[in-house]
Write a structure and sequence with these properties.
mainly alpha, about 70% helix, Arp2/3 complex 21 kDa subunit ARPC3
């Protein structure tokens, strides 16, 4: 239990540092900007309380908003991910449910189930983030374009991170 808490704290620190110090400074063509910090909420334990996940989404988004000089955009988008996560986990759950102690990763879920799970959470995150940004600037068409392109970019980046996780052997 304590190891899981430490692992999640270290993951939070590392992903936030990468997002704030590296990825927030990458703008490819003015449209692409990867958002790896979504993986913080995606990777929380399956059995974590929905309220705790929601609060983690709010807190993480708030901290990112402070460092990104955005006014509530990341807070709102990541809180939405925290809200949707239990429903998405239920949608992608195996027929017999999750094994006790299973984690949300490629190793425990498999590539296809994890991919569906990740896309079903990354897309609404990006849609909320870029729609609010687009509404404020009146560029909703650009917001849709950024949502689609950054969803793909973030998804590929998250799969790349997940590929370093060893695959669970069946047996």
């Amino acid at each position: 239990m304590t190891f899981d808490i430490v692992k999640n704290i270290v993951r939070w620190i590392l992903l936030m540092a990468v997002q704030i110090l590296v990825l927030n400074n990458i703008y490819l063509g003015g449209v692409f900007n990867p958002y790896i910090y979504v993986l913080i909420i995606l990777s929380l334990p399956i059995d974590m309380s929905a309220l705790v996940v929601l609060l983690m989404g709010f807190f993480t988004g708030f901290i990112l908003d402070i460092f990104s000089h955005t006014i509530g955009l990341h807070t709102m988008a990541l809180t939405l991910v925290g809200f949707l996560r239990p429903q998405i986990l239920a949608i992608v759950a195996p027929r017999d449910g999750y094994e006790f102690g299973s984690s949300v990763n490629v190793r425990d879920m498999g590539w296809s189930r994890y991919s569906v799970y990740a896309l079903l959470l990354i897309f609404p995150h990006h849609l909320m983030l870029f729609a609010m940004e687009g509404f404020s600037s009146g560029l909703f068409g650009l917001a849709v374009q950024k949502t689609l392109l950054n969803t793909v970019l973030t998804f590929v980046l998250i799969l790349l991170v997940q590929s370093f996780s060893p695959i669970k052997e069946k047996g």
